[in-house]
Amino acid sequence: xxxxxxxxxxxxxxxxxxxxxxxxxxxxxxxxxxxxxxxxxxxxxxxxxxxxxxxxxxxxxxxxxxxxxxxxxxxxxxxxxxxxxxxxxxxxxxxxxxxxxxxxxxxxxxxxxxxxxxxxxxxxxxxxxxxxxxxxxxxxxxxxxxxxxxxxxxxxxxxxxxxxxxxxxxxxxxxxxxxxxxxxxxxxxxxxxxxxxxxxxxxxxxxxxxxxxxxxxxxxxxxxxxxxxxxxxxxx
Length: 236
Known about the structure:
Helix content: 10-25%
Shape: globular
Oligomer: single chain
Order of helices and strands: EHEEEHHEEEEEEEE
Strand order of the largest sheet: 1-12-11-10-9
Mean pLDDT: 82
Number of helices: 3
Radius of gyration: 22 Å
Largest sheet: 5 strands, antiparallel
Distance between the termini: 11 Å
Number of strands: 12
Structural class: alpha+beta
């Protein structure tokens, strides 16, 4: 696997345009064009800072849930947690889609009272993994809004037993991986040769999962396997 930071891709392109070298030293490779410094567009226009609670990934206690007295997500009803979180987030953003896709509540209506929500439930099976490093397992789950877009959610139990969301992320999930205290999210890019990899780690200052690194990873194509148009041709 070859992972390339996005800044290194740009650096390699600029370096290649600077000239060529061999054992005899630098040689003129012909007119390779002029390398210009980046030009800033609209440099005097900046977005207003987000108001309180307007950042989608902000950690927050999920309202309406009983406390987990055992201080663990093991045994907690994952579907109930997702339903409470999606419902409260939709009410908070007024259905604008700022915090959660407006279709998510409609999709949740497909879930039955069965333990797994039934065959049509769009909530993925929960995965337990310690991401905070305190020995307690977090709940990692996701709600598939349609055949492509997904709402990724991670929940933890605080010291007082309250269940809190520590990561919320909407995207096209090519894959989700956990290793030690890292959670990596793979997403397709406009270049089919690469996938974007967002690496999240626990941040005690924000009491949530924060983006620590964004890289590009090679994506071998599955040229010999027929796939529907909605699926990526990435081998992973």
